[in-house]
Amino acid sequence: MNRIDIHQIFQHLHHRYPFLLIDRVLDYTKGESLVAIKNVTYNEPFFQGHFPHRPIMPGVLIIEAMAQATGILAFKTVDEPPDDNSLYYLVGVDKARFKQPVEPGDQLLIEVKLLRITRGMWKYAATTKVDNKLVASAELMCMKRDIAETADDKIAAPPKIDDKVAETTQIDETVVISSDESVREKR
Description:
Strand content: 35-45%
CATH architecture of the largest domain: Roll
Radius of gyration: 19 Å
CATH superfamily of the largest domain: Hotdog Thioesterase
CATH topology of the largest domain: Thiol Ester Dehydrase, Chain A
Number of strands: 8
Structural class: alpha+beta
Distance between the termini: 59 Å
Oligomer: single chain
Strand order of the largest sheet: 1-2-4-5-6-3
CATH class of the largest domain: Alpha Beta
């Protein structure tokens, strides 16, 4: 069994309290799957407002917990140690379904399976169970990105009208802007 404790999770995820949503990895197989747990307690900060008289874990945080599990599996799959300059970002969610609420005292059993890697895009099937009952499922897409090293790199100034585009600028996997384009007002 390939277990990962909280100290090793810190090495694979940049998330910290209150946004670290994986407590332990019970098992994983590189390039295939990972099983993790999240212990849900009444002390979670989101329960203050969601909802004070009937605390329920927000569905988006269940999705985030599944996404964090995919990030750990991705780093383990590529067999490279995570560093401070790289992250696996959640870039898409399909077929998300929520079957029952998650409440304080529940333990999430998160299972992710790698479906494929295409042009740097990792696609996963993910499920979350409580007491062996399905509470959520989704297909998740993630992509590795490098983190900017300086604060100036992290926040780019918005373009001005008539600014020229660099020689060739790639926005994402499907959008490329050539150098003969410039920034213009929407008409």
